[in-house]
Each structure stands twice: as C-alpha cells, then as structure tokens.
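user:
I keep going back and forth on a fold encoding question. Separate attempts, laid side by side, tell us more than any discussion would. Would you put together a sequence-and-structure record for a protein of your own picking? Write it directly below this note and I will take it from there.

assistant:
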Amino acid sequence: MELHALPSRIGQVRRIISAQLRYWRLDPLIDHAALGLTELLTNVHRHAQPDKRCTVDVELLLDRLTVSVSDHDPRMPNLTDAATYDTCGRGLALIAAVSQSWGVSRSAGGKSVWFTLPAPPGAAAPPSHLPVYGAATDGPFDTADLEGVVLEYGHATARSAIMG
C-alpha cells in the first residue's frame, strides 16, 4: 500500500491492516502489528526526507508475519536509549520488544524497515464458506493443493496488496 505518512493516514492504515489480519485469522497479532506499524509510519512522518511517501507491505509466510515500511530516505534509523523524560526515541525499542525480529534493508533510493511476528497455527486459512474471487473456481481449495505448493517451492505465501 502506497501512502503519504501523515497523521490522518496512519490510523486508516492501521485499521486496514487490522482487518487484513482478522481475515487471515491472526487476531492475536493485531495489537503488536498495529503498534509496530504505527511506530514505523511515525518515523517516516517525523524523519523521512525528501518527502513522506512510503510503502507498507504485509506478508504471511506459513509461520511468520512480516510488516515492512519502505521510504525514499537513504538515512538509516538508529536504535537509541531514551532517557526517562524524553518524549521521543523509543519507537525502534518498542518494535524490538514486541517483535520476533526486526531490521533495516537498503534499497535503491531509500530503505525498508521491517519486523516479524510469529504466526499461530492455522493462520491464513480463509473461512470455507467464502468464495475465492479471481480464481478459476469458487474454492475452497483442497489442502492437498497447498501441500503441493509447499513441497514444490518450500513455502506457501499469502500476501495482500491494498491501494490507499
């Protein structure tokens, strides 16, 4: 999802991602994912230059949810120790505290800051009564089909791309 990291948009993106996680049956991860996403988008809003444009990506790979925010600022973020009465500087420490792992990757023209959360068993299994839109059939698909994908490629991926 591409957006400008403005305060008015951060809440909207948090609600969209929360809805996607509910659809993937990842309700236990919503609070930590929303907190981490809010911190990353706030960092873009406060620090990114030359603009506040960014991309949010949420990816579920079998047992791990990865949330990333990419921006056009090549400067790397710093994990700092905030003093007791500091009003900022705790965002990455919060992400480190609630996530399984986190990091930063350089990209052409910017960077991507990401964190992962462990997905509970049974995640990304859509309710069996819903049709699968855009597929050649109405679904649901037999789990043997998914097992074939896992055997052939080593993993099955569930991704969401939502335009904002």
Summary: The longest helix spans residues 30-47. The chain is about 35% helix and 25% strand. The chain has a mean pLDDT of 76. The helical segments are 7-23, 30-47, 91-98, 143-153.
